[in-house]
Amino acid sequence: MGAVMRVKICGLSNVETLNAAVTAGAAYVGFVFFTKSPRHVLVEQARTLAQTVPVGICKVALTVNADDAFLDEMLESVPIDMLQLHGSETPDRVADLRTRYGLPIMKAVGIADADDLPAIADYAQVVDQLLIDAKPPKNADLPGGNGLAFDWRLIAGRRWAVPWMLAGGLRPDNVAEAIRLTGAQQVDVSSGVETTPGIKDEKMIAEFIRAAGGKNGH
Ligand SMILES: O=C(O)c1ccccc1N[C@@H]1O[C@H](COP(=O)(O)O)[C@@H](O)[C@H]1O
């Protein structure tokens, strides 16, 4: 029997779409704590949402170069299972955060061409998981969540020392091909299941998880 595909739905900000992700079989649900993002949630809002997530589904907090004061406050209130670091956090900063909070860390690494690949192995030394995403365009407002894919052939057949997740421009109509080309066993989506930036669609969420072959093991 093949490995179970694990799907993360990121940028959930209301109970309806959170429930849709849970019901459709998401293994991870993500909350974005980045004020420039159309998916940004406040700490209180995330707390309310996170409290409804069944045990066994990983609740991920996405932050971008967050400082300790914010992380202390957020993690005090919100029952988070994993930190996703989506900024320019260095390997040393990642290692410090992992020790400070005792939570699994997933570091996003942006890929545009082959020169970006060594950073994946560098971060693999200090994280629990890697998130391999498209590098944002220069001057982009957001370091992720732009609906942009990279050339998946760049990572075809490659393996790293820790589990990894594929992200960037995935949609219900391309995720199966992305999985086939890269061998990913975990995939992450945000804008590909939205009607407009920040507005998730329950049907697209279910369609994406079905197309990816996702199950949460429940
Ligand atoms: O989703 C956001 O708004 C966001 C903001 C800041 C950093 C990362 C963000 N999203 C993450 O980006 C990737 C790819 O997203 P997309 O599917 O291409 O829209 C994904 O990991 C999101 O978690």
TrEMBL record:
<comment type="pathway">
    <text>Amino-acid biosynthesis; L-tryptophan biosynthesis; L-tryptophan from chorismate: step 3/5.</text>
</comment>
<dbReference type="InterPro" id="IPR044643">
    <property type="entry name" value="TrpF_fam"/>
</dbReference>
<dbReference type="InterPro" id="IPR001240">
    <property type="entry name" value="PRAI_dom"/>
</dbReference>
<keyword id="KW-0057">Aromatic amino acid biosynthesis</keyword>
<dbReference type="InterPro" id="IPR011060">
    <property type="entry name" value="RibuloseP-bd_barrel"/>
</dbReference>
<dbReference type="InterPro" id="IPR013785">
    <property type="entry name" value="Aldolase_TIM"/>
</dbReference>
<keyword id="KW-0413">Isomerase</keyword>
<keyword id="KW-0028">Amino-acid biosynthesis</keyword>
<dbReference type="Pfam" id="PF00697">
    <property type="entry name" value="PRAI"/>
</dbReference>
<dbReference type="GO" id="GO:0004640">
    <property type="term" value="F:phosphoribosylanthranilate isomerase activity"/>
</dbReference>
<dbReference type="GO" id="GO:0000162">
    <property type="term" value="P:L-tryptophan biosynthetic process"/>
</dbReference>
<keyword id="KW-0822">Tryptophan biosynthesis</keyword>
<protein>
    <recommendedName>
        <fullName>N-(5'-phosphoribosyl)anthranilate isomerase</fullName>
        <ecNumber>5.3.1.24</ecNumber>
    </recommendedName>
</protein>
<feature type="domain" description="N-(5'phosphoribosyl) anthranilate isomerase (PRAI)">
    <location>
        <begin position="7"/>
        <end position="210"/>
    </location>
</feature>
<comment type="similarity">
    <text>Belongs to the TrpF family.</text>
</comment>
